[in-house]
């Protein structure tokens, strides 16, 4: 086992539980809290050279977790404030008459079109789509929201 692996394993074992408790107080959802802690650990792995010489690695992890939480909350705020104006329902109604791809902007990338078709035409949920894309469910929701915003701009 390399020095980096040992360091990260020790860091994870010593601080995971306290970071998870801290994250749960902010997001109040265990899976989101776990995602935030994992993101924090990934940042620690990326910065391990700096962190291994840091006088207070627990404080570094706490601050990093708080920054990850702020980013998460900012994303949630944006997701909640972006009005979708029934866009999805309109697409579903029109898809009954013609394929959804007929209504999507031509300039929309094919990958984005596929995601919208999976969600609205095929009725697949975010969990299924995220598994197919290899991303988290939260990231999938954000991605669908961004694709819809992109569609609105292109229409």
What this model shows, in words?
With 155 residues, the protein is an all-alpha fold. The chain has two domains: 3-81, Orthogonal Bundle (Rna Polymerase Sigma Factor, Chain: A), CATH 1.10.1740.10; 87-154, Winged helix-like DNA-binding domain superfamily/Winged helix DNA-binding domain (Arc Repressor Mutant, subunit A), CATH 1.10.10.10. It is built from eight helices and no strands. The chain has helices at 3-27, 30-46, 48-52, 57-81, 87-97, 110-121, 126-133, 137-154. Helix 1 (3-27) packs antiparallel against helix 2 (30-46), helix 1 crosses helix 4 and helix 2 (30-46) packs across helix 4 (57-81). The longest helix is centred in the N-terminal third of the chain and has 25 residues, at 3-27. It is elongated. The mean pLDDT is 82.
SSE string: HHHHHHHH
Tell me the number of structural domains: 2
**Which fold name is given in CATH as the topology of the largest domain?**
Rna Polymerase Sigma Factor, Chain: A
Q: What is the number of helical segments per DSSP (H or I, 4+ residues)?
A: 8
Overall mean pLDDT = 82
- Number of DSSP strand runs: 0
Rg computed from alpha carbons, rounded to a whole number of angstroms:
20 Å
CATH homologous superfamily caption of the largest domain = RNA polymerase sigma factor, region 2, helix turn helix motif
Largest sheet: none
Portion in strands: under 5%
CATH class of the largest domain: Mainly Alpha
Distance between the termini: 54 Å
CATH architecture of the largest domain: Orthogonal Bundle
The global form is elongated
Low-confidence stretches: none
Helix percentage range: over 70%
Structural class: mainly alpha
């Amino acid at each position: 086992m390399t020095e980096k692996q040992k360091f990260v394993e020790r860091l994870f074992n010593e601080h995971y539980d306290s970071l998870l408790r801290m994250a749960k107080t902010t997001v109040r959802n265990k899976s989101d809290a776990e995602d935030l802690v994992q993101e924090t650990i990934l940042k620690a792995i990326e910065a391990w050279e700096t962190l291994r010489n840091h006088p207070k690695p627990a404080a570094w992890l706490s601050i990093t977790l708080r920054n990850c939480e702020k980013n998460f909350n900012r994303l949630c705020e944006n997701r909640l404030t972006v009005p979708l104006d029934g866009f999805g329902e309109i697409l579903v109604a029109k898809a009954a008459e013609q394929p959804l791809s007929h209504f999507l902007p031509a300039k929309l990338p094919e990958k984005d079109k596929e995601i919208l078709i999976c969600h609205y035409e095929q009725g697949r949920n975010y969990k299924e789509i995220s598994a197919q894309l290899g991303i988290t469910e939260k990231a999938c929701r954000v991605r669908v929201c961004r694709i819809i915003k992109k569609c609105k701009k292109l229409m």
